[in-house]
Amino acid sequence: MWAPWRGRYIRGAEAIEGCLFCAVLRTRTDRAHLVLARRPGALLMLNRYPYNPAHVMVAVGRHVGTVAELTPSERSDWLDLTALAERAIAKEYRPHGLNYGANAGRVAGAGFPDHLHLHLVPRWNGDTNFMPVIAETKVLPESLGETWTRLRGAIAGLAPRRG
Question: Could you say which residues bind substrate here (predicted)?
Answer without folding.
Answer: 47, 119
